[in-house]
Specification:
The chain has 506 residues and is α+β, with helices and mostly antiparallel strands. The protein folds into 3 domains: 152 residues, Beta Polymerase, domain 2; 168 residues, Orthogonal Bundle (Hypothetical protein af1432); 56 residues, no CATH class. Helices cover 51% and strands 8% of the residues.
Length: 506
Amino acid sequence: MTPMDARRYAVTPPTPDEITRASLNAIGPGEAGWLVGGCLRDELLGRRVRDVDIAVDGRPEPLARALADRFGGAVYATSDVFGTWRVIVGDLHIDVAVLRGGPPGDPPDARTRALRLEADLRARDVTVDALARPLDGHDIVDPLSGLSDLAAGRLRLCSPASLDDDPLRVLRLARLARVFELVPDAAATEAAFRAAPGLVRVSGERVRDELCSLLATRAASVALRDLAVWGALGVVLPEVDRLRGVGQNPYHHLDVFEHTLEALTYTAGVVGQLGGRRFLATPEETGLPGVEPLVPVSWAVLLHDIGKPAVRVVDDQGRVIFWHHDETGRQMCADIGRRFNLSNRFVEYVGTLVRQHLRLGFLTREQPLTRRALARYRRDVSPWVFESVVVSLCDRLATRGEKTSLASMARHYRLARTVWTEVSKIPAPQLLSGDDVMQVLGIEPGPAVGQALDALGEEIEAGEVTDADGARAFLLDWWGRGEERAEASDGQAPRGSRGASDTTDA
């Protein structure tokens, strides 16, 4: 998004109290429900609640649909096995699930309900999440002393088999430990090592959602490092795990993996320094709905250098070079997209940002900036101009460590702001359509049409062509030049699509 059309991710999610009241009004006759898990933990810690879990001893679907209608959210089933429905309101998730302690009674008595609730809580992963509060009461049910563990800063499993039962919990363990500054006990750490290989059996969609939850936090980098140590990262994101130990040229102070994690730590700060999250494309616009606004660009920062191991070479002078790692990384994003069942839109989004993450650095060589250079930049990264400068700045900040020149970094920030603000002022090239091009040049559909539109668009954006008559005249002149015509007929890539090494200061 640009400064001219920025808007906030506007939906205001309901509070847990509002959800509780709405649930009490919507729950079926004779049924009972409880707030369970992380939302209670977050409330006790005074943190913002991002996920609300509700357990019911009846059918979860009617309650989920009622909450979606009440708060204007989307609703869908997430698990036929566990009977779970999810409601998404803005960036808040409300999960409604049936108690896992057995089928509901007809109706169940108080003792049966208590036994089923305790069985449900004991089946969870960590004790600090094995908490429940009835929708119509205030007392917290805590069968495994989770409140004591929370007060002691301790992360303990509900049972020795907690992670083996569902290996996805290994990712949650890393996130919870780092976000809430809890220390896993020895049994939890041992279980993480043991269960990590089982992540290969977990669906890509579930892994994707948990990684999105991780990337929504400021603790993502340290949690990813934990996952690498436990052997989990190599299963779920081998492209990132392979960055470990990949050395770079002396310009860099870290290997590629540590550089990537450091870049990720800067993401929220860079977005804030450039004006705030309101300028980010919404998750829906990026093709990754239902996540926090910072998550999509965090994916791009995490993946920006994944192409490096595949193209790393050492030349005759001993210099480490990563030719075309940006394009290689873009292609790898498509593989990740298929594995996690990501939308084509999001694969295009993250692939574009990975492919173009060096472009801002290249513009430092084109001072003073021309309108033509800005137009080419806009064409190559559009519509993700703001996100492209965020990724570039995060990359740059994590390159040299203490050797970073403050003056150089200040220039990079000034360039980023200039590019972002000036690019938004350039009009979109819309003087002629593809049909118009074919009519003017007398050609059939094919690569030449796209090449002609690219060439015309650059002239329009540069201010050289301002009306339809001028556009037609330019096309005839351009087509009459043999070199460009041959290039278009051969279907070669447009200018500006060259690969890149890692020898720039970006």
